[in-house]
Amino acid sequence: MACDISLGRNEPCKDSIAGLQAVYFLNFNTASFTLNANDVVTSFPTGSTAYKYELKGTNGYTETVNTSRDNGTTFFSQELSLQLKKLSAEMTKELKLLAYGRPKIVVHTRAGDALLVGRLEGADMTGGTIAAGTAYGD
Question: How far apart are CA 2 and CA 71, in angstroms?
Answer without folding.
Answer: 18
